[in-house]
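yo, ABC transporter ATP-binding protein is done. seq:
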Amino acid sequence: MRAADLEVYNVSWAPTKSAQPVLHPTTFRVAAGRVLGVVGPNGAGKSTLLRLLYRFQQPKTGYVRVGGQDIWSMPARNAARRIAAVLQEQASAFGLTVREIVRLGRTPHRSGFATSGAGDEQVVDRVLTTLSLRSLADRDFGTLSGGERQRVMVARALAQDPQVLILDEPTNHLDVRHQLEVVSLIQSLGLTIVVSLHDLNMASGVCDDVLILKNGQPQGFGPPQSLLTDTLVSDTFRVDARREHLASNGASHFSFTLPN
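structure:
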């Protein structure tokens, strides 16, 4: 797997030509191997932006480029070799094992109805090892815990051998231990990653840069340490936010209260 630059320029989206944009023109660049966190309140346009990035919806304006190439200028199969996504919704596995689900990630690399070959199995084995899933390879997906399922879905995405990985709320509905496992995984992958998160403290700890959205409008882009000010966070989320610096390790933590 190799990381690539992700360049997003002036992208916007609306359901129809006459409708109000769900996402207004948005521009940013993620250098190869960096992690971008997309944060904002519900309805801010986070999932819409991600759908443009993994080529589910075509931008009404602007472009998305991976490694300098517009993802809409190439066949869908080629785009799937560059970009993989892990979504919140996990479809039923229909009795598939962990290995069979991970193997599905090799589909963009096959021709027609060809079955998986030795090279595909080597990739699957490598990914299972990387995500510590070999002991679960023959387990039915439906018998796994939430955290284990999330790791399997990430493994399937990694089996695509992508340059960019899109994660939509990867810690949603997970308990604290499994959230920490997913965070540790994100930090270890070495890919260009775009991840939407609700937890600002998690975003500060995991992401190299943060994009803030509100009502489909970008509010700011940059390193979380400088971008996430009390004022910007308070205005975006309609709360009273206070950033507290921890003397023990230099980290910071947001606390929130409702405005009077």
